[in-house]
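BUG: 3D viewer hangs when loading the predicted structure for this chain

Environment: internal workstation, default settings.
Expected: structure renders.
Actual: progress bar stalls at 90%.

Input used:
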Amino acid sequence: MNLHRLLAARAEAGRPVRVGLIGAGKFGSMFLAQARLVPGFHIMGVADLDPARARAALAETGWPAERVDAPSFAAALESGRTHITEDAEALIAADGLEVVIDATGHPPAGIRHARLCVRHGCHLVMVNVEADALVGPLLAREAAAAGLVYSLAYGDQPALICEMVDWARACGFPVVAAGKGTKYLPEFHASTPDTVWGYYGLTPEHAAASGMNPQMFNSFLDGTKSAIEMAAVANATGLTPPPDGLAFPPVGMDDLAEVLRPAADGGALHHKGQVEVISSVARDGGPVPRDLRWGVYVVFEAPSDYTARCFADYGLVTDASGRTTAMYKPYHLIGLELGISVASAALRGEATGAATGFRGDVAAVAKRDLAAGETLDGEGGYTVWGRLMPAPDSIAMDALPIGLAQGVKLTRAVAAGKVLTAADVALDETDGALRARRQMIAACGPAADAAAE
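Structure tokens produced before the viewer hung:
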């Protein structure tokens, strides 16, 4: 509750938090829209492979031209203006930079940037949850060893879920489940960029006119993004995935406590302490009343009869026993809230969520019968979708992570609905993301945990 005061003090002292943004897409642009108005922030640089896009993003979000015309990082540091570049490594290495935001959405880039931040002594806010799901436990460990913060991005749902779980535990409430809402039907797993707009009720022409990327939006629809985000939450909170993947039960705000209990207690969960995504659409296609499509939730228990009576005294909606209840946030503001992570890292030395272990993984699953020789097109594409798995299970079967299922060829046929394994594809042994993944499993996987015990 003191971030604004701490930022104001830095501004008054002439020592603003100096920030570098990598990736000037939608998330990055939303951050820029608010960062311009926050005393105590200095956006030293914006790096994008297309500098013209970065300039356009700054202009669209209200930045006056005279504030974004620094000819170099040294000039930006001296003048308080912003330097635009296509060189992310030069941005990370710039003198005076404190916090880097990776908003690229590209796992190999995120891994590279995280390790450059460690080398150059910068905190990192990882908007790139794809990179976090692939190797986040390793990146968080490397940053901590260097005395730096590696953080999930506040405003994105994983960090907001982590906050709610932390709140419940800090109050002494055992957490039964936590997660987010989305639009889901089982048929969505087979959706492709050609079919996605029909499910959203849009025409391809409307989507194109709005600059909407069909593969990105399809990742939200086909379940992949939900799996990636819940892997990040599991790895950060200690909650665990169900063994058969996310079930996406349809449930509204008023029924969270009743439905999100273990099946043994009459609910829809596999176990207590689980991550789960809930659907805003009933299985017959009808709407769920008071859905939580845009929000996040935590379900928790009363640890005593006295606390359960307090739930009743203060009007909490509970399950039939009166002992299980829920809190939720119906909306999230994505990049508009991202400054909370930046300020927390720089001023408190704290992450707004970060992996503490390797508990959840996201495996590539065939959307259709795939033939030997086909090239996988990754998250949101035509060939695979991402299923959440317990990390020990994915390691045991050598499942192919969705983050490595881009641009690799199949060495043999895979039937629709099957989890792909590393043996099904020709992996590039020189690939940095693959090497980091193997390092992460060696350092943070079950074998490492057993050795530590």
